[in-house]
Design a protein that fits this description.
The chain is mainly alpha-helical and 432 residues long. The protein has a single domain, classed as Glycosyltransferase. Helices cover 46% and strands 9% of the residues. Strands 1-2-3 form a 3-stranded antiparallel beta sheet. It has a 3-stranded antiparallel beta sheet with strand order 8-9-12. It has a two-stranded antiparallel sheet with strand order 4-5. Helix 5 packs antiparallel against helix 6 and helix 13 crosses helix 14. The termini are close together. InterPro entries: 6-hairpin_glycosidase_sf (IPR008928), 6hp_glycosidase-like_sf (IPR012341), GH94_catalytic (IPR033432). Keywords: Glycosyltransferase, Transferase. One of its GO terms (molecular function) is glycosyltransferase activity.
């Protein structure tokens, strides 16, 4: 019965924390950290107030919900949680695609040049839209269902029917959409538009959320790592899918490292282009390290412990070089001014080098799960300190560490809460 309590907790939150009682001082620091107590309490307060991404957004976004559904399970009944998931499935396209976000029909703002809204006969209340430059919506929904089922134990949800398909069948249908409509045969990987790391703003167009005639298509680490995680989740939830999807998953993993990993520089290449780069020849894009995509790649099991160590060292160096507040720094160096048409995508602005706890927190989780507990604790401190300093979870921080964007960004609350849980689980382990 060794570590039984840990195993039970891990089944609930998906942890793989190091079980060695190596550092009693660190354990005491974790359990007595005042910022951890404040952050967890504040996270619970924030998540009680709704499911939209933050106070600057009206929609429920699947890429955000994926990162706080486990936190929501602490304060909401499971029926409420899965109703949000049902809406995404009811709005699923006839090719299997998943929309980015949904909103009540009466609150949808219809303007020329704005979002294109989609409706289905299955969903009477909500309408939704899709930022087509990104390729993580399907993967995010699969991951969300996995987290919901793992957290609540509601395995029967997979057998529930939406229209003529069960939830389990719709999960697989969403993955088939990526193979059928977002697949680069040349690379054996899924493609998206040229965005900044995990971002959903492409290089061209003032707004930049839709595929257009100016789109430069590419394969990148974030989208493919997200699909790998989703496939692992789906095969665990629905074992009969393994026969078809395990070889596909293994090939995506192999092809990701073959085409996107730069062994010489020990980092991921930002983009491998399908129809040419949008940037000037003299610009060396491969100087940029994508922090967020690297964190998700670690979650997908793509990097060895030595590669994780080197990646973390590079992130810390980037924080020092930029003056940013944490390793949530989206990337370093940022794209120079003018590389993105969107006015918010200036150097160190928004997704172009902004500091996002939403992804920094995921890196902390992966450090703990891969045994880098002391490093995780150290790198988490500036993230939790600014929660208390600013009394909230802001969407992102400037390079000067000033909060900006939504002040109730639930994705940040979700990833920090889970990161603290993982550290506390480690600290509570007692060796025999």
């Amino acid at each position: 019965m060794k570590y039984l309590n840990l195993i039970l907790v891990c089944l609930l939150i998906g942890c793989k924390a190091n079980t060695k009682n190596e550092n009693p001082v660190l354990k005491e620091q974790i359990l007595s950290n005042e910022y951890f107590t404040f952050t967890k309490q504040k996270a619970l307060e924030v998540v009680k107030t709704g499911f939209n991404a933050g106070d600057g957004y009206g929609e429920v976004w699947i890429r955000d919900y994926n990162t706080f559904i486990e936190l929501s399970a602490e304060v909401y009944p499971k029926e409420t949680l899965k109703e949000n998931l049902r809406v995404f499935f009811r709005l699923q396209g006839d090719d299997g695609n998943i929309l980015d976000g949904f909103i009540p029909k009466e609150k949808a703002v219809h303007t020329e040049g704005g979002y294109t809204y989609y409706e289905t006969d299955l969903e009477p209340i909500y309408t939704g839209h899709k930022n087509t430059v990104e390729t993580d919506h399907e993967s995010s929904l699969v991951q969300s269902v996995y987290k919901y089922v793992t957290k609540t134990g509601d395995i029967e949800f997979l057998n529930e029917k939406i229209g003529d398909k069960t939830i389990a069948e719709r999960l697989e249908w969403s993955m088939e959409f990526l193979l059928n409509h977002r697949w680069s045969k040349e690379h054996g990987l899924i493609w998206g538009a040229t965005t900044a790391d995990w971002g959903d703003v492409q290089h061209c167009h003032n707004w930049g959320v839709y595929l257009t005639e100016c789109t430069k298509y590419c394969v990148d680490i974030y989208d493919n790592a997200m699909m790998l995680i989703a496939l692992d989740n789906m095969m665990e939830l629905v074992p009969k899918t393994k026969l078809k999807w395990k070889p596909i998953r293994n090939n995506i993993s192999k092809n990701t490292m073959e085409h996107l990993w730069d062994e010489e520089n020990k980092k991921f290449i930002p983009h491998v282009y399908l129809n040419g780069s949008p940037f000037p020849e003299e610009f060396n894009e491969n100087e940029i390290l994508y922090h967020g995509g690297t964190a998700v790649a670690i979650e997908a099991g793509l990097l060895s412990k030595e590669q994780i160590k080197v990646s973390l060292e590079k992130m810390i160096e980037n924080v020092k070089a930029s003056g940013a507040g944490s390793i949530g720094l989206t990337m370093y160096p940022p794209y120079p001014k003018g590389m993105f048409e969107s006015p918010g995508m200036v150097p160190y602005g928004y997704q172009n080098g902004g500091d996002w706890t939403w992804f920094g927190g995921r890196m902390i989780q992966q450090l703990v799960e891969n045994g880098f507990v002391e490093e995780a604790y150290q790198q988490l401190q500036p993230m939790v300190k600014r929660v208390k300093d600013n009394n909230g979870f802001y969407e992102w921080y400037t390079v000067e560490n000033k909060p900006t964007g939504s002040g109730t960004f639930r994705g940040s609350a979700g990833v920090l809460y889970k990161a603290i849980q993982l550290l506390e689980n480690y600290a509570n382990i007692k060796n025999e």
